[in-house]
User: Fold these one by one.
Assistant:
Number 1:
Amino acid sequence: MHRRHLNTLLERYATAWPGEADIVNRFRAFVATHDDCLLRSCVPGHITASAWILSPDRRSALLTHHKKLGRWLQLGGHVDGEAVIEASALREAREESGMAHFEFEPWAGDVLVPLDLDVHSIPARRTEPEHDHWDVRFLLRAMPGQEPVLSEEGTDLRWFSLAEIPTVTDEESVLRLLRKAAMRREG
């Protein structure tokens, strides 16, 4: 299983977010010790990819009310063996939003850097034991002229103004995405 691209993304992230060495080191250790980290079958956990999607005017973000978890979250899911993690984030954005056209928001110039890294526990369900999602998150902007369409993974899908997001969720990882996206737009 190729992890070279993931390690490159982690290197870029470490450079862009120097205060987050702890999470980068946790990711590096996990990736180094699990050859199968890109597959759902990796029992302790696996790499996932998410997209913080901004509206064309960058004044709103798209959130889904997750059916299984019952919370407003960014769009994302399993990488299912895809070594190019951002391709999985884009696939999930398309599948869960019903929209087809997005642009990645680069960090500096044309260099793609993840917006955030997050590790969160997923509760046991049916035959699946409790495990961790090692989420690599990207900043996307939706292109104009598209309307979101709810997927079967959510119970709702809506654009929220950036100011409104803290009123609909207290999920720290979602609020962190909001803050970091604002920092990237200002920087």
Number 2:
Amino acid sequence: MEVMFGPSGNRHWSDSISGRVVAETLVPGVTINEVARRHDLRPNHLSSWRRLAKNGKLVVPDLAGAEFAPVVLAPEAAPVAVPSERAVEIIYGAITICLDAGTQPDRVVEIAHALSTTP
């Protein structure tokens, strides 16, 4: 393993080594604390590497026994119009039309337009 020491004594781990260490945490039954002790790291430092890997910013190599969560891509559902809880009333002179709260806005406009063009 190649770990670089900076002028302040801080260690710098290459991305490939960081990725391999993160892969070790993905083996069932292995804890972050255990892997951190093995590599003389703080658990929160290792957790930050795991977050980078989760966000696609750190490559994690395949490691025997490591388990990854399956990726499931589902089509986006079409947005559903949420009806208001109040019914729609169109009042035109002596005429009152009550519509269900789920009536689509374009239908309300059609009815209002039809009323306004009626003699």
Number 3:
Amino acid sequence: MGKAADERQCRQQAHDQLVDAIEQLGYPAEFGEVIAGELGGEKSMRRMTAYLRGANPHSPEEIADEMLAILQMRHSWVEQKVSQRANDSITAFYNREREE
């Protein structure tokens, strides 16, 4: 099995666990499908599943709020990495060898 297939399998497993955790709280699987679809990534889905199992939220609004918080953290992380990469590029440009 290749790396891409392993990643798909891990993502599908995270998806299934998230939907199962939402169903265990008494919500329909369709709600879990929407949450998983919005989160998209394996790590985000695993983080959400951990929240659901640990916090035992009492309303769908709490679940949606946590989903939005996870998405915001992921967005902030991506923005930080983009900024770091741009900073590294400009630093490399300034520090390059120059002909005299």
Number 4:
Amino acid sequence: MSRQSEPIFDAVVRIDKLPAAGRSIAVDADAETRKAIAEAMNILSVERFVANLTVSPLRGGLRALGHLDASVTQASVVSFEPVAETISEAIDRVFLPAPRDAQAPAPGAEVFVDLEDDDFPDHIDGPEVDLSTLLLETLALALDPYPRLPGETLDSLGVEVGDKEQGPFAKLARLKRDGEDQS
């Protein structure tokens, strides 16, 4: 995913203006926005991108809880043919203010990090949180890293994947063996 200065769609929440009961955010991307998302993700197309979040205040920050549904098309890693994928991901993320300098640990101090805890909060600077970044990150992590059509393999395309070693180091090893045989 490439970095951009402007968000692809508006999902900014101001913490200082967030009601105590929280608020709902609904994103239903239009065709132009879906095209921009596809370009940012470096995939063929995004046919559907719908997210519903409930944002509520939490310890000076906020908690975003909701769901992302998307339909995307990627290129197969085998044949480069389009592969459709449906994504349905739950979202539960906490954003907390970054620790102030007075609260920062002293250099060389021991800091406890619970690696068993899956809910590391994201740190924020300022009164705003851009939830579009959260939604795009959720989509990026849910994409199949190696999309391919059902039953599609290199063998089905007629590409030999035999046991014979390939590449420059295999060729060097054969040259070395051939040199030893001649002496």
